[in-house]
Amino acid sequence: MKKTLESLRKDLASLRAGRATPALLEKITVDYYGTPTPINQVANISVPEPRLLVIQPWDRSMIAAIEKAILKSDLGLTPSSDGVVIRLAIPRLTEERRRELSRVVKKKAEEAKVAIRNIRRDANEGLKRLAKEGGISEDEEKKRQEEVQKLTTKYSSEIDSVAEAKEKEIMSV
Which of 37, 51, 112, 132 could form a disulfide linkage to 8, CB 3.0–4.6 angstroms apart? Predict the structure, then answer.
């Protein structure tokens, strides 16, 4: 359940909320001498201003490849280069795009909740199997199922709060 929550946090960090963050580029890979490599492993990424990302490749010959990878990505950003660094200006989000991103956040949160419920179901089935085989008593099975339900409730509420915080971040102008 912890892994599901962390996965959701990572997914939401890569959503563009109108602010520059190096996490935006985490999923983008660049062809580094024949090997697909994440941008953050071939360049230094900094945020000098709230709406600007600066990418400084360690190898200047990688600038064109990095620009190409960013253009191919679904970020919708256009890089500008001066031969030394690449600048990514993050434009303000339109109201329509904010609503669309908000729906994406809700969808990802619901997917995470479904994953949590699947984990709960698997745990409960395992407990039933143990009780049937005589590994644990019926009382012990009920007690463990209650613990699993408490964990499910806890992680579902954490998912809600993470999603709510991201939506608030997206909707703020």
Answer: 112
